[in-house]
TrEMBL record:
Protein name (database record): Uncharacterized protein
Source species: Cryobacterium luteum
Length: 131
């Protein structure tokens, strides 16, 4: 994931990358920021081998998982523009007051993406803006 100086604070670059990259690129970028275990959790698998296979293209996740990973990549991209990978990991896993004290990772893994995706993105934008 690029963290160039020209990246916009609103996450436009992260959004564009989340749409344009193939699944392997999304998984690789997420793994660099969040680590393989958290990506496996978001991808609804119990082992990191699946994450490695998704990244190298030898196995493909289902369409629903791909959308969850793309949304997670977008959220991670918003945050990594201003925060370290450690902070982004903690943000994904911690209880978030803007999300009724639920963790973004749990919501992205378990809830209908069309309902929870916009809420998690808004919470990430708020955190990145310092609020």
């Amino acid at each position: 994931m690029s963290t160039s100086a020209s990246a916009s604070p609103s996450g436009h670059r992260a959004y564009e990358d989340s749409v344009r990259l193939d699944t392997g690129g999304v998984v690789t970028g997420l793994r660099e920021i969040l680590g393989a275990q958290l990506v496996a959790y978001l991808g609804r698998v119990s082992n990191t081998r699946s994450v490695r296979e998704w990244a190298d293209g030898s196995r493909a996740p289902g369409a629903d998982v791909v959308q969850r990973l793309r949304t997670s990549y977008y959220v991670a991209g918003i945050l990594i523009e201003r925060e370290s990978a450690k902070v982004v990991q903690a943000w994904f896993q911690g209880m978030n007051p803007e999300l009724d004290d639920q963790s973004p990772a749990t919501l992205l893994r378990t809830e209908p993406l069309d309902a929870v995706g916009p809420k998690v993105i808004a919470a990430a934008r708020s955190f990145a803006a310092g609020g």
